[in-house]
Amino acid sequence: MRLVYEQISEAEMIFGMPLGLRNVPDKLVWHFTKNGTYSVKSGYWVARDMMSRQHADRARSSTNGCKEVWEKIWGINAPHKIKVFMWRAVKGFLPCATNLKQKKILEDSRCWQCGWNNESVMHVLWDCLKVKKIWKKTFLQGVCRVWQEPTFLDLVHHICSTATRSELETFCFTAWWIWRNRNLHRYEEKSLEPEEVA
């Protein structure tokens, strides 16, 4: 009832506004230019400005989410090397094949373990079929095939928001062992079984 009353009073206020003494027809005005006329150039700059503001808003919100993730990761009971590894993985600083190809160190960015997909941080630590066998041995066995996160940061954020501190520690240690096992396989031609890694 109150909402209807407020709308009626607003309508009365709008109808009570004087329109002016001159009888001038309405016209469209583009307020993003000095002369009020639309141009493709001005439309382009408005669209770019809108996109950069949206990007900045997304970056601000993801930074706030990252703060919580970092507080949880730096707060786990683990050696410093595990925490630094997680920081490097989330930031995408691990020397996986995709990153090495971008730096022109490698010509082929395929995964060294499965040979199928590009070896990104997300692939080598979560998406690779050989890695899934390891995650199935942990507390993530029910979701390792279901969760389809676009980046490792998104995955870590998801885990930080759902896992206990002990589970987060298990996740960090397991991710580190997966990376270590990948390096053993690649450089020393050794490989641990999923049970040994998990």
Explain what you see:
With 198 residues, the protein is mainly alpha-helical. The protein has two domains: 39 residues; 124 residues, no CATH class. It has nine helices and no strands. It is elongated, with a radius of gyration of 27 Å. 21% of the residues are buried. The N terminus is likely disordered.
Structural class designation:
mainly alpha
End-to-end separation in angstroms reads: 62 Å
Overall strand count: 0
Number of helices: 9
Number of domains: 2
Q: Rg, please?
A: 27 Å
Strand content: under 5%
Query: How much helicity do the residues have?
Result: 55-70%
List SSEs in N-to-C order. HHHHHHHHH
Mean pLDDT: 82
Uncertain residue ranges: 1-5
Keywords:
mainly alpha; 2 domains; 61% helix; elongated
